[in-house]
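Sequence only, no structure available. Ideas?
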Amino acid sequence: MSTIIRTDSQLNPLNKDPHTNENVQTENQFVAEEIKPASIQQQSESFKESDTQIEKTEKQQPTQLMIDDVIEKLNTRGIFQFWILFTFCILYTVLCAAMLYPSFYLMDPSFICPGQGDGFTEADTGCDAGCYIDTTSGRRTLTDTLNLYCNNQQLRIMSISILYFGCAIGNIVIGAYSELKGRRLGMIVTWAFSIISFIGVITSYSITQLMIFEFALGFFIQPASTLVFVYMSEVSIGNYRQYFCTIIMVFWSVGELLLPAVAYYEYNWRLGFTYYMVIPAVVVVILLYFFMYESPQFLVSQRRFDETKQVLLRIASWNKRTDQYAIIDKYVEEQRQYAIEEEKKSSFKADQITSIYFHQVFCLPKLLKITAAASGILLAINLIYFGCQLSLSTISPNPYANQVYLGIAEGSTLLFSNLTTTRCKRKLWSFIFHTATCILCLFFLFVETDDGKIAVAFFVRIGNVFAMALVQIYLNELFPTPARAVCQGIVYFFGLVGSIIAPYVIEWAVDIGINQIAWLGIVSFLGSLCCFFLKETYLMPLDQELEESDLKRFKKMNVKKTATAPTEQ
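Reply:
I predicted one. Tokens follow.
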């Protein structure tokens, strides 16, 4: 889509000087000339004539409608948007449980050593002869069910990483799939297979089966979180786009508060998975199937104009804006004509410029630079976040209480960020909050009391979540529509490398004898440097096309592919 920019030739379409009425030889630039003497009345008449010409031109060439204009007319805070918001909030609560369950169900076990007492861990004497795992609480976890401790400790670490490795691979594959088949189908397919994966984890009786279904769970469930924000950014506009995205993230913290409660009060981990993950996931799939339509912005990018019209009419009906049908017709017709004109100008088919594929991103320098920098900052943020999740027991002896404190910190931060992130410059404040988080992590080198560590962890989570909230919004604004989903998939892939390596970074800290969270801060500081390579998107409209240099390069790539193809005579 294009925006009509009024140049001087449009303001003066006859290309004549309004004072002298003589031809001016100029091409879209203002030329200063000496004006001949004329009476005030003659000048006044010439100005009136020029104004009349401008008015006629504006009537003949009305400003082209953008998708945001249409969404605004159909009400960006209507019933349709709130149904989608409700569905995504449930989805994000379940997603939180799926991503953070290793903190409680694959946690380091506690051991009892006869004659020495209890509370021992694998790091001290827990694995010595005669010691055994403490099951006096009656709680069963994956760790003790599958014997993932002592000699099998590395298998436990590997099982945590493989969940996040599945997330990373899934973001690439499902991101590309959603660009081909659409946001709606991508969401429904991924969550349907997530339910199967949940059931596979629940029925696991061997480490091999567990790892297979953990990989599948990560592969299918995490990409849906990317599509949530892609879709929400395409069916809402302006500040409401930011508000809705922030509210969805708040429900992640709701999941953080529910997860330790379920893990603490439901002693059987298989039942806990069923109640908190499988049943709500089924509800999400049903809601997606009946209430989620395909993104109109995606349909326009694919030149599927009839479907675009049908979706916009349904949204108008949901939001009680049936009086805006004429706007929908006008928008769809304009996009159809625009596509025809672009196809005539182009040396290759229109459908070849509607989507950017994974391998093509690495051939477009400007798009690649933004993608790489965004990946670096998200990797660092995820490393601190998931590293702290796996270090709950180092904050204080009660990991369930620690999770509640961190959940409160995260929820309150997200609520506050809803009022502030819409007014924050994305680039500057992403740098400030991530850097501050890294510095706060270093405080664990000096604080020794449990209360002090809880307080520091509370503020670490605040800084980390504020940076994450900004980056989540930032990612929805950085990329043009044809590349948005696949680029976000790439960014989330490399971002999730932070969660994949988090258990190994924790082990690295233990080996060198430094506080685990402090080490996370030191390693993650490199993410701050990535902010310098990003562009500012604050108050800027979403890009509908690639930047000019990348677009030219992309067209050349496609021209080379079609150069040897037979042409019609």
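The domain at 74-105+151-355 is CATH 1.20.1250.20 (Growth Hormone; Chain: A;).
Hope that gets you unstuck.
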